[in-house]
């Protein structure tokens, strides 16, 4: 399904991520119309093992969801990952999928993709502030590279609200960019990540400028810090299920 979503349109120059080839950065990174047009290319070239994380997440969801459950994707952007997961899970279980985002342009693109793949019956979208999430009875909640954009002082109260809205036995899947508090490891992980981006066609200038734009917007925690805050919010089982250097995916389970 990931491949099907990607093949829905031919890559053109306008859909390629060239946002940071300009000579200066005029603002912090925001999910505006310009980002919407290049977002799929940006994901593919900026997030290591993006497809593998989606596939691994779907395998876990099969184990924890029950028939009729609703899965929420918070910060769903243009719906690519949510549609991919919906395509990997069984159709006969009556699952519902709801993507939530505060970017109207992103959701417009998501709805177009959903129509293209005839998923309107099971996949829907809400224009909401995810920090105000209040949808009780959720079977699963996905935070895909989203928590890192929420201010650190707000994260605990936000995660507590997600915990309250999950049904007993429900799960939170969290994917994040992380830091290491070992200074050498942190430097090496960052260097390996920059080499990855260069291998995907980004120049040194583009890498530096995107890092500058994200500096005050994306604030990563370490694995230990993420585990600590999730445990503090009530989750009894918190484990890593995928890691690539400074990118990690974690599952947090609410006690039955």
UniProtKB/TrEMBL annotation:
Positions annotated to bind S-adenosyl-L-methionine: 50, 75-77, 101-102, 129-130, 211
Keyword Methyltransferase on entry: yes
Domain Methyltransferase: 73-170
Alphabetical UniProt keywords: Methyltransferase, S-adenosyl-L-methionine, Transferase
Enzyme class label: transferase
InterPro entries from the UniProt entry: CmoA, Methyltransf_25, SAM-dependent_MTases_sf
Catalytic activity: prephenate + S-adenosyl-L-methionine = carboxy-S-adenosyl-L-methionine + 3-phenylpyruvate + H2O
Protein family (similarity comment): Belongs to the class I-like SAM-binding methyltransferase superfamily. Cx-SAM synthase family.
General function of this protein: Catalyzes the conversion of S-adenosyl-L-methionine (SAM) to carboxy-S-adenosyl-L-methionine (Cx-SAM).
Protein name stated in the entry: Carboxy-S-adenosyl-L-methionine synthase
Gene transcribed to yield this protein: cmoA
């Amino acid at each position: 399904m990931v491949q099907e979503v990607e093949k829905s349109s031919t890559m053109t120059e306008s859909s390629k991520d060239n946002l940071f080839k300009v000579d200066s950065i005029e603002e912090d990174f925001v999910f505006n119309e310009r980002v919407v047009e290049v977002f799929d290319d940006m994901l593919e070239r900026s997030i290591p093992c993006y497809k593998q994380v989606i596939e691994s997440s779907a395998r876990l969801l099969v184990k924890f969801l029950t028939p009729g459950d609703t899965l929420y994707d918070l910060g769903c952007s243009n719906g690519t990952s949510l549609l991919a997961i919906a395509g990997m899970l069984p159709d006969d279980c009556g699952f519902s999928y709801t993507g939530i985002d505060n970017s109207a342009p992103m959701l417009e693109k998501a709805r177009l993709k959903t129509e293209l793949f005839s998923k309107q019956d099971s996949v829907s979208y809400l224009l909401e502030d995810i920090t105000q999430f209040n949808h009780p009875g959720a079977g699963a909640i996905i935070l895909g590279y989203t928590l890192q954009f929420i201010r650190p002082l707000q994260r605990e109260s936000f995660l507590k609200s997600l915990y309250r809205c999950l049904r007993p036995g429900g799960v939170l899947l969290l994917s994040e960019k992380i830091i290491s508090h070992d200074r050498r490891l942190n430097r090496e992980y960052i260097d390996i990540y920059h080499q990855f981006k260069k291998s995907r066609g980004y120049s040194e200038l583009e890498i530096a400028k995107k890092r500058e734009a994200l500096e005050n917007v994306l604030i990563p925690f370490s694995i230990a810090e993420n585990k600590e805050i999730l445990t503090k919010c009530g989750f009894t089982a918190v484990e890593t299920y995928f890691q690539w250097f400074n990118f990690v995916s974690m599952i947090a389970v609410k006690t039955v």
